[in-house]
Fold this protein.
Amino acid sequence: MVNTKQDKAFLTFTYAVLAAVGIVAVVPLLYVVSVSLTPFAEVLKHGGYVLIPREFTFHAYRKLMETSGIPRSLVITVTITLLGTAINLILTTLVAYPLSRRSLPGRNVFLIMVVFTLLFSGGIIPTYLVVKATGLIDSLWALILPTAVSSFNVLLMKSFFEQLPEELFESARIDGAKEFRILLRLAVPLSLPVMITVGLFYAVGHWNSFFAAIMYVTDRTLFPLQVVVREILMLSQQPLENAEDQVPTVTMQMAAVVFASFPIIAVYPFLQKHFTKGMLLGSIKG
Amino acid sequence: MPAKTANSRSYAQPAASSRLGKTRKAFWAHKEFYLMLLPGVIYYLVYKYLPMYGVIIAFKDYDMLEGIWSSPWADPWYKYFQQFYESPYFTQLLANTFLISVYKLLFGMVPPILLAILLNECRTPWFRRLVQTLSYMPHFLSWVIIYGILLMFLSQDSGIVNRWLVESGSSTIPFLTSTEWFRSVLVGSEIWQNLGWGAIIYLAAIAGIDPTLYEAGRVDGASRLRMVWHITLPGIRHVIILLLILRLGHMLDAGFEQIYVLYNVHVYSVADILDTWVFRTGLEQWNYSLASAVGLFKSGIGLILVYLSNTLAKRWGESIW
């Protein structure tokens, strides 16, 4: 083993940079959480530097729940995340699985149909007109149906299905299983890593969805979380309010930010090992 | 290649059956697969291919009451393309779209590679995992959330950076509302969001390098730094080039949502890209035909870019399809 001075210096450098990356990634979030939890008088006293809250108050959150559109938008977002992800997964699987069967006559036609949408799209305006023509404007379906299948995820899933051992399907067929049953009982359970990965991508997409809502929804009662949070952020900031129990805008804004990001931050570390695996297995090569 | 499957299902085939009959039988044998495909195909036709048909409104004087088909054709047919080409927006939008993309590419490409290499050099599993978990995290935050965080740090009257600047005797900097700073904020926040996520693919490539190379290096007395330079970097060179090529194909997608959420009237001149302008012109000012023409222009160039980049990528042995 060589272990020269240079190696040691390099190793020190490595750890220092990695620590810095970790800190840079987490500190902004920590700060936001901290500001949202600290009484504003306290924030002012420390000139805004409150990385770790020394005093807690849920005042901002309570106020947000009582006076803003957050609770309603939370219901909307949870609904479209659950329903939307379920629809995404079902449709994507139903496209990817047949396309992974190399013997399917006409497979290439369907494949080209999928891939071509990666290359070319009608653009924002024609898509809007189609969504309008199909009667989805100002309905929750507008946040679900127009993005029901992602071609990228179809290719990811397809390449995973292709790696499953053919003999397994063969023996199931000999046992007289129908294709739907084979898909449900064999292919899907064997593809759990890719299902979780793709499911997570879709779910994050729905949770964070903003574009679809500003395009297709004008009815305020249907606004999802991100749109409402943005509106709260657009309120002019009033940094120097002194009334004791009044919750200042900044604190509420940060509480709203925490609201809209917490669920993802809380869930994803548990799924991390699946999605890194799933990503790598299906990445790039189609 | 695995044996043909469904074809080999034991369907008795009469010796004299015609070719057509065979084909028909092959289709029939796969009927369940077509049934599975049906909902997806309907989705693609309605929400992907119908809008492609809809681009013809770029060549028409679109009238909302008349609908796509009955609206009169524009005269000349390239009227809206010409209108765009002659407008002052043409150069501004193209320049902005292109510049923002290039900046993101230039400054966004190297950090994930470095991070992947350093993560690979890290010899403490728990620490490595911790850094990975933390650095992937921002990727899952929406641009609205990141906008909120940026406000907290960079806003001119209450952002902590500006408060600090004032305390140390400088004047405040309007990071989010000045044309000088806006692109830096765009690029910086993009790097922050995707640093860790971008490293995943390089980590995978590094994992694929033959470990005996490192052993040989060690036997020859190479330092860690030398091994990074002579083994790791060449080992992931093809992935770096491949990703670079593939990103060139998306040169015109400078990031609609990020820009839409972050920009404001003060910075339109440096921040407005094709997509954001199409959105405003089309959906906020009801100028459907002009906006569609610009959108089609963008899709057209995009198609060429993606096709070229994929052809290039194929030369390197990989492609997205």
